[in-house]
């Protein structure tokens, strides 16, 4: 983030930081979302994320003008703030539409869930770290690569993604994945490289354009990682993974 920010200073572009996975994480010891190196940070509160509001998310900024603009866009471009109006108010009922906006308001019920989830954020992320440390330790002798953490960061650990060392096993990526699912271990694949999706292919991107992303896709599997995962369940994931890998 610091290096991207330095480039933004040099070339004059803006930074929107997609931190959808990263709430509760830190960068250089400071919470993700402080916009120290970005203009806007966004979080997702989709149900699978670290905390949820059932659906929805949050955009943060330290820039007053951007905050005002975001507030307007959220609610049809309408304001009740006299300072944003083009003339004096007709009366206490008055509002003005000063931009074309959307209905992006979060419901009060979702906000209540989010406020309650926020009180548990640290506890959730700490538990994810306990589980990750345990995975790191118990998986280290297997023919897989476990996640690496840059020393500048403290991850929210939304995901725990392993990469198969396919040259060291006699099973395919798909076979390992399907074996886990067949044993009721709900693994997943985050994510399919976007340039292989039809929308981007229609724009001219093609397979082979981003070989590292494609290599990642050919090896990656997200294994269960959520705060209520018990150690016994985690042991079962590990035992099943060993079977799946054929080791
Ligand atoms: C990196 C990233 N950005 C954006 C999104 C979209 O978030 P939402 O579904 O809350 O709009 C996701 C959701 O999976 C994500 O993982």
TrEMBL record:
<dbReference type="GO" id="GO:0000271">
    <property type="term" value="P:polysaccharide biosynthetic process"/>
</dbReference>
<dbReference type="GO" id="GO:0008483">
    <property type="term" value="F:transaminase activity"/>
</dbReference>
<protein>
    <submittedName>
        <fullName>DegT/DnrJ/EryC1/StrS aminotransferase family protein</fullName>
    </submittedName>
</protein>
<dbReference type="GO" id="GO:0030170">
    <property type="term" value="F:pyridoxal phosphate binding"/>
</dbReference>
<keyword id="KW-0808">Transferase</keyword>
<dbReference type="Pfam" id="PF01041">
    <property type="entry name" value="DegT_DnrJ_EryC1"/>
</dbReference>
<dbReference type="InterPro" id="IPR015421">
    <property type="entry name" value="PyrdxlP-dep_Trfase_major"/>
</dbReference>
<dbReference type="InterPro" id="IPR015424">
    <property type="entry name" value="PyrdxlP-dep_Trfase"/>
</dbReference>
<keyword id="KW-0032">Aminotransferase</keyword>
<dbReference type="InterPro" id="IPR000653">
    <property type="entry name" value="DegT/StrS_aminotransferase"/>
</dbReference>
<dbReference type="InterPro" id="IPR015422">
    <property type="entry name" value="PyrdxlP-dep_Trfase_small"/>
</dbReference>
<comment type="similarity">
    <text>Belongs to the DegT/DnrJ/EryC1 family.</text>
</comment>
């Amino acid at each position: 983030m610091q290096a991207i920010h330095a480039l933004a200073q040099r070339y004059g572009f803006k930074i929107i930081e997609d931190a959808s996975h990263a709430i509760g994480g830190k960068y250089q010891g400071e919470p993700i979302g402080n916009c120290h190196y970005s203009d806007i940070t966004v979080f997702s509160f989709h149900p699978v994320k670290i905390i949820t509001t059932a659906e929805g998310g949050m955009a943060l900024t330290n820039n007053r003008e951007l905050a005002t603009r975001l507030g307007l866009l959220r609610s049809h471009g309408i304001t009740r703030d006299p300072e944003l109006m083009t003339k004096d108010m007709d009366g206490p009922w008055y509002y003005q539409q000063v931009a074309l906006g959307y209905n992006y308001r979060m419901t009060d019920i979702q906000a209540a869930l989010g406020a309650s989830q926020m009180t548990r954020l640290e506890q959730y992320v700490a538990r994810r770290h306990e589980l990750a440390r345990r995975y790191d330790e118990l998986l280290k002798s297997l023919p897989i690569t476990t996640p690496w953490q840059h020393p500048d960061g403290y991850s929210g650990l939304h995901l725990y993604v392993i990469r198969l060392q396919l040259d060291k096993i006699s099973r395919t990526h798909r076979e390992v994945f399907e074996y886990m699912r067949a044993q009721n271990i709900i693994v997943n694949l985050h994510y399919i490289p976007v340039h292989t999706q039809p929308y981007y292919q229609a724009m001219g991107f093609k397979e082979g354009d981003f070989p590292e992303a494609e290599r990642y896709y050919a090896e990656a599997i997200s294994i269960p990682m959520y705060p209520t995962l018990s150690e016994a369940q985690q042991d079962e994931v590990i035992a099943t993974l060993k079977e799946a890998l054929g080791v």
